[in-house]
Amino acid sequence: MDALLELLQKDDRTSPAELAAQLGLSEKEVVEKIRHWEANGTILAYQAVINRDSVDSDNVTAAIEVRITPEREGGFDRTASRIARFEEVENVYLMSGGYDLLVMVEGKSLRDVASFVAHKLSTIEAVQSCSTRFRLKTYKENGVFYQQEEVQERLSVAP
Fold it and tell me: How confident is the model at residue 31 (pLDDT cuts 50, 70, 90)?
C-alpha cells in the first residue's frame, strides 16, 4: 500500500503539510494524491474510531456467519449486496471456510438482533443458515487499542 494511504489510515486528521514532511513530498503532491484517491473511490470515507463504552451505549454488536446458495452468474454478490442494504448491517465480508458471509450487525438489544435474523436475514431465499455471536468486549478496533496495556514488571527474586 502507498505510504501516504497508510499514514491517512492511521490518522486522517494529519495535515497535508505534516504528511508531506514525513514523506518527503510537496504539500501540493499530497493534496493532489488525496483528491485523486477520493475521486476514484480508493478513499471511501473518513471515520473516527469511537470507544463505545465511553459514550454509554447499550447497543449490542453481533457477528453473524451466513451460509448462502450462490446464484448462477451472480455468485454471492447479489445476496451480499441485498444483505448490506439493511440498516442494521455495519459490514459484510465474503469469507473462506465453513460459511460464506460474515455480517456485522448492530442493534439496541439482543432482541433487536434476534428479530433482524429471524425476520429479515433468514427469510432471504438464498440464505441456508445463520450462526450469531455477540461481541462482549472490544480490545482493539481498526488498529486502535481501547486500553493501554499495563507493563508487567517482573518481581525481583531474592536469593
Answer: very high
